[in-house]
Amino acid sequence: MMLIFGLMLLLLLQTAACLEFNCRFNQSDPCYAALGHKLNLKMVDASIYHLKIQKRINNNPDDPVCRVKNDKIKECDLFNNRAEVTVINGTLIINRVIRADSGNYTLKLDGSNGTVTSTDLQVNVEAPIGSVEVSISCSSNGMKSVSCSSDGDQLIYSWTLNGESMMDGNTTIELNEETDGNIICSVKNHVSHGQKNIRVKHCPVIQMSLIALGCVSLILILLFITACHFYKRKQLQSTPAPAGDTELVYAQISHDKHKKSEKNKSESLPTADVEYAAVRPQTKRKEKKEEEVQYGEVTFTPNRSNALQESKEECVYSQVQRR
């Protein structure tokens, strides 16, 4: 495996524009190509041999074939007339690799003397690595969880803390509370690699706990105040408003006649008796504080001394004002 990676690094020419890979049909190791990037497949001198490149799908003569003669592509159904595929100086060049380019290929050489030789090559296409992202989360017990992620195919992860290697192959690692320093997540596959450096600090366990406790306490206090408010409001709404009070009002009423008759009778009649009668006023609401004028019907029974002079009951309406 280390030999493969070493060969891949030697063959990889990375520029600002694209990734470029060089492989040979007679190599024993698989050929890796980056999706969307350039692949050069070295064949032989196409001016000497008639070449036939066949992609083995079902291992039969009907598999796609591309014939090359005099350094030019002839009768090619392998690459479906793709303009980005050319042959230059005996090298098959694919300027923009697609996933369909993965597979097993056989190169057959037809010599001028009638000899036929063949060689095989395995081509693997992988998506290169995108940007590497690292995140840190703290748990309630002070432990730290560090996660790493990236785009691409066949990703391999590795970690280093303050320059020392840690476990490989995991996208997430757990660190204890005392861990501090620089941590690096490295991501690679057969066609690219990337890494991200991040600073690891202590998790503020006590501070986080106090903040959480304070928030919970505040919420409980607000809930209690709200519950008390609604309880009192419900009590007030459920208590029926008292009916209007009935009061007994005593009125001092004098038997007043017309002024003329009063003078005539003043000599013969005793002083008008003061009588008290119970008057039931109209019901009033508590909210009204203003004095109300009540009218009540009062029936007087004359004294025996006046029975001869006044034979009929008199109904006197008086304006009664509550005290």
Provide tags for this entry.
single chain; 323 residues; alpha+beta; Immunoglobulin-like; six-stranded mixed sheet; five-stranded mixed sheet; disordered N terminus
Mean pLDDT over the full residue set: 74
Level-1 CATH class name of the largest domain = Mainly Beta
Strand ordering within the main sheet? 3-11-10-5-6-7
Quaternary state of the chains: single chain
Which term fits the overall shape?
A: elongated
What is the percentage of strand-forming residues? 35-45%
Question: What is the assigned CATH homologous superfamily of the largest domain?
Answer: Immunoglobulins
Instruction: Tally the structural domains.
Output: 3
Distance from N terminus to C terminus (CA atoms, Å) equals 113 Å
The helix/strand class is alpha+beta
| Beta-strand segment tally | 22
Number of helices: 3
Q: Using the 3D structure, state the CATH architecture of the largest domain.
A: Sandwich
If you had to describe this structure to a student in words, what would you say it looks like?
16% of the residues lie in helices and 38% in strands. The chain is an alpha+beta fold. It has 3 domains: 2-126, Immunoglobulins (Immunoglobulin-like), CATH 2.60.40; 133-205, Immunoglobulin-like; 249-321, no CATH class. A 6-stranded mixed beta sheet has the order 3-11-10-5-6-7, with no helix packed on it. A 5-stranded mixed beta sheet has the order 1-2-4-9-8, with helices on one face. The protein has a 4-stranded antiparallel beta sheet with strand order 15-14-17-18, with no helix packed on it. Mean pLDDT is 74; it is low at 1-17, 255-272, 283-291 and 304-318.
